[in-house]
Amino acid sequence: MSLFRRRPEPCQACGGRNGTRRDWPISRSVLLTPIIGVSTNTIIIMTMIIASEFSPGGGTHSYEVNMKVEGSIVLVTGANGGIGRALVSELLNRGAAKIYIGARDTASLQPLLAQSDKLVPVALDVTKPEQIATAAKIAADVTLLINNAGTAGFTGALSAKDLSNARQEMEVNYFGVLALTQALRDAPAFRNGGAIVNVLSFLALVTLPVAGTYSASKSAALALTRTLRAELKPRGVQVLGVLPVQVDTPLGAPLPEPKLTPADVATGTLDALEAGADEVFPGALSEGAAQAFRNDPAALQANLANAVHSID
Ligand SMILES: NC(=O)c1ccc[n+]([C@@H]2O[C@H](COP(=O)([O-])OP(=O)(O)OC[C@H]3O[C@@H](n4cnc5c(N)ncnc54)[C@H](OP(=O)(O)O)[C@@H]3O)[C@@H](O)[C@H]2O)c1
Predict the structure, then answer these.
(1) 254 partner at 20 to 30 Å CA-CA among 6, 91, 143, 310?
(2) Given this model, what pLDDT does residue 25 score?
(3) Domains in the chain, please, with CATH?
(4) Which is nearest to 196 in space by CA: 266, 255, 273, 133?
(5) What is the pLDDT of residues 250-281, one digit of tens each?
(6) pLDDT the model gives residue 62
(7) Backbone φ, ψ for residue 296 (5° rounding)
(8) What is the dihedral of CA 60, 233, 189, 260, to 10 degrees?
């Protein structure tokens, strides 16, 4: 069965092209948001107006010093994967001083290790607390953390037979990122001039129903990324979210052409990092999708809603 069988009729659930925007969680209009804070015994209720012309990928912070890859000490998770290998190559090209390369199976890192003596293999399954703790000790000097490891089961909500894919996606794509990030909180990456890069997905912004549980995990990771950015802003730490569309890697194999190359993602990510960006849509394909989202997020979501698994 093709993942991209199209429905003969417009999706009724989302209202199709003319549907309401009620389904979309981020309104482009002005929101009135009550913020409740507790001060001693007094509950202070404030009303804050948030002008939310939502502009994904548009923001940059003015950091005192933008992260420079040259001379940095980096940890890349999922370094044996398609994007992971491309990131490691591009980090070496830009003069990283040392790169810890994490993988579940360190034997799979042999081809990478032949490239440079700056690479240090680390056994790292991001769902295993003991491996996270050990990796955090080994890589205690990192100035740049790249959470790249990810998994996708390509299941929908009802088409999935059970929760196994959804749980694994959350464990790797959300809890794995959170757990490793917490474990490294005392590293230089979390002090002024340090940086964290989370490889998310464009599907954090819009849901592809054939990969609906994956989209949910990446949306969770996007919220985590924005929370980390807010928490680390006072310290001058850059937190970059990377939102690519489909990439030519094993994980992206079921997705339709055209695809980005892993090198497109690595170059776009590190360019954005060195430019002080908050979020990036790497490569022209991703930027095109981001533009469609900016223009009409409901229409884009309605279009993707046609890619559903049969639940019969
Ligand atoms: N390919 C796409 O279309 C696409 C699009 C947008 C975003 N992304 C994101 O890009 C990132 C890299 O994916 P990719 O495209 O390069 O796919 P990939 O080639 O399949 O690589 C995925 C990597 O994640 C690792 N991984 C999976 N589960 C793990 C775990 N529990 N602990 C540690 N590592 C684990 C894999 O290790 P093993 O070899 O041991 O399985 C592999 O190194 C992911 O976060 C993915 O969600 C991909």
Answers:
(1) 91
(2) 27
(3) 16-304 (3.40.50.720)
(4) 273
(5) 999 999 999 999 999 999 999 999 999 999 99
(6) 58
(7) -160, 85
(8) -30
Q: Do residues 165 and 153 lie in contact, with contact meaning Cβ atoms separated by under 8 Å?
A: yes
Q: What are φ and ψ of residue 181, in 5° steps?
A: -65, -45
**What's the pLDDT band for 172 if we cut at 50, 70, 90?**
very high
Q: Report the residue among 80, 127, 151 best suited for mutation to probe ligand 1: largest number of ligand atoms under 8 A from its CB.
A: 151
Q: What is the pLDDT of residues 1-58, one digit of tens each?
A: 334 433 333 333 223 322 222 222 222 222 222 233 333 233 222 222 222 333 455 5
**Catalytic site residue from 98, 100, 174, 218:** 218
Tens digit of each residue's pLDDT (9 = 90 or more) over 200-241: 999 999 999 999 999 999 999 999 999 999 999 999 999 999
Place of tokens 């990796």: 135
Which residues are within 8 A (CB) of 202 and not within 5 positions of it... i.e. 6 or more apart? Answer: 243, 244, 245, 281, 286, 289, 290
Is the shortest distance between the CB of 248 and ligand 1 below 6 Å? no
The CA-based diameter of the chain, rounded to the nearest angstrom, is 62
Dist. CA 191–CA 268, nearest whole Å: 24
Please pick, among 98, 214, 233, 259, the residue that the annotation labels catalytic: 214
